[in-house]
């Protein structure tokens, strides 16, 4: 019953999307003007129906309804509640439904709430949103139906991949999807603005909160995913330049550029064509990412079951949407007149540097991700990893960081570097001091090989942390607008993250041993004693757990307990690493196998300041949130003031 | 306060376009060059024998773990084994915790480099296997169940 | 005049993003149309079965030892599991062959007795012997990397053919031919 209800709602939502497209498009013509009134309500109804369909799928998973094929292949009655819930989106069809639902709800939300745009631009935007949704509805209903039934219910499900049975990972996909698909709104806004030639500050101000919202979710999603990989995969690494990771990074890079660019457009009416282009590129990256991950043309540990037929379907959608948007851009961009001028030394210029560098990094990541595909066409099998991404990315990342330090201190339109030398001097001196200090007191950075990037990274991070709070100096802190606080916090987050990355690369120490029970080992400032290895069991797993006493610098020992776990359905072995976090870093412990002579394999790391990587990520997201709240509050105040004025005028009979 | 040069003002869009293009094309060229030199190539033991990679260059080696070749060193965490295909064999050394189901006779992909003496030192082992094999065009499961029910 | 030329020049660049996307599309199409061969073929073809001795997976069928598979008669060795869905799809074909007298032995990987019993009662039991391979060790040692897979073993215990995936109508002639070859 629930499955049929869900499917019916999904079909109805698809039909409404079609209606939204047709009525929105016709309402733009002179003859179809009466249709304008129904577009917003249709968009809201579409969103709600799609939401109901998604709730139906969640209900099916929570009840472990084994007569539905998706639940039979992906769930298990013994799975804990929270993972049954997460199972809804832990598979191809469910995550596709999540994608479509977020799109529909986002469209509904704009339709209900957005009042700042010109009427015709609004209609074109909603029509654009519907246009993109229809393709994905078709994909879902025709080739990836999540509600498909089995002729006979199976006695038991096949369970989720145990690698996915984890709280962090349970909520990682929805966060990311809110980000990816939230960018579809920017895409629709761009289409709307191109169609009605309405690219200006109003367009940027309307689009900006939506981009901010999507960007915050992407930031948090990527940070969470990285932390999950770090403690789940058991190698101590936190970013592998895996195609699926890159698929989430590329929209983030585009969205960050778009965020900064739309700021320029909103404030100074410059960079118009560029902002529209970025809005198209950002969601295009989301779609390309989805395609790369689901089509199976790139292998990855994250990829869903491979299906080139589905890949072709999505590729066709990409051609229609991205190709169509780029053609629209090429034709209509000429009607976008030049924006306001600015000097070489100005905040706009710094933002141009930021944008161009981010776009370069985006190109670099895209090329690196696609390169294996290119060589495979010529018969070679290659893999591209950190030796390419790290140095080439750094070449463009460093100038961007410098612009980030200096830009917020510059005035709009025209400024002199001489005016701010005082403010830049302090961070610059700090960078020099840190680099000098490292050169003198950290020989490990230079032998056996020169760790250049971590060396530069640590210096830059400290300097940037100070530079990011500089805009607050000399201001009345209580009267500083929230968006400014947001900028400061977000930039500070980047510096904090960079510090964590650099110190981890530079100063991590590792110990790999086969240990007897009772033996002690030294890793960095820690002394670790293996106390015991014994079997334990959980709700759907059994494991061997090693209990170790870890003492920092001779202090009181704490217990660390890594496990080697066996799941029953589907049968898999995973390693659960154990972490001990201090203010200055993390102890990371992994248990391996037992050797014939009774010794246990242990791998131990001391990673100084590594949690900063993810605290930094959260700070970046927090900065975005502060900015978003600030702008929404300002907009609401303004619209309330405008309403009061209009009200007063009416009462005065004007 | 200096006012922007009026000539520059008219061409601002063009200048921005040129800067963006120069940086992006530069990035593209840099990427292409770096990819050629930094991409990690995939070798079978036969390839290593015929055309070995330079010592120290990061590559990947794939093949089957030869039966009876797995030895654990005295330190308890280093293993030596032989990766083979139907034409050749390559000795491999790995220090670390082996992935689950890494056994003799199974397929493996090792990431690492060749060292002096013709031994491949692996930094990472990826045991190659699928526990749930999903064929590409899977026949409809309902039909299969019907066929079984009919046969009874 | 210079403004016209400038706008014409920048006009051409407006098509660059589309051109780049077209390039991406071409690259990806070649990738999709010639998908990498993901079948891991056994290098054990032509080699004898490795030595193993598996305990019975269910009470009413004996387990398998390598020596028993070299008794002079060619047979099929089917690697399956109760949790494997395509195994259900090929079950009728295996049963049909069993009824025609083809010897079929099974290896149940990473399974539990009750689950295997349930699977066999729902889908039929064509196997003369079923070995329980709890850790997939034997599966991997014969060069199998997934389920279901079916091997043709000749009378001397040598692996003659490997079929990856469930057995479909179009696969039957080849398997029969290989079985016949193995008998010669």
Short key terms for the protein model shown above:
heterotrimer; A: 654 residues; alpha+beta; four-stranded antiparallel beta sheet; 17 helices; 63% helix; globular; C: 184 residues; alpha/beta; Glutaredoxin; five-stranded mixed beta sheet; two-stranded antiparallel ribbon; 17% strand
SSE diagram, text form:
The complex is a heterotrimer of chains A (654), B (152) and C (184).
Chain A: H1 2-27, H2 36-62, H3 69-74, H4 81-87, H5 92-113, H6 119-143, H7 167-195, H8 201-232, H9 243-268, H10 272-295, H11 308-332, H12 347-377, E1 382-383, H13 386-406, H14 417-441, H15 452-469, H16 482-507, E2 509-515, E3 520-523, E4 526-537, E5 541-552, E6 558-560, E7 563-567, E8 572-576, E9 578-582, E10 585-594, E11 600-608, H17 612-651
Antiparallel strand pairs in A: 2-11, 3-4, 4-5, 5-6, 5-7, 7-8, 9-10, 10-11
Chain B: H1 6-10, H2 12-38, E1 40-43, H3 45-50, E2 59-65, E3 71-72, E4 78-84, E5 89-95, E6 107-115, E7 119-127, H4 141-151
Parallel strand pairs in B: 1-2, 5-7
Antiparallel strand pairs in B: 2-4, 2-6, 3-4, 4-5, 6-7
Chain C: H1 2-13, H2 16-33, E1 53-54, E2 64-65, E3 75-80, H3 85-99, E4 104-109, H4 113-123, E5 129-133, H5 137-141, E6 149-153, E7 159-164, H6 172-182
Parallel strand pairs in C: 3-4, 4-5
Antiparallel strand pairs in C: 1-2, 3-6, 6-7
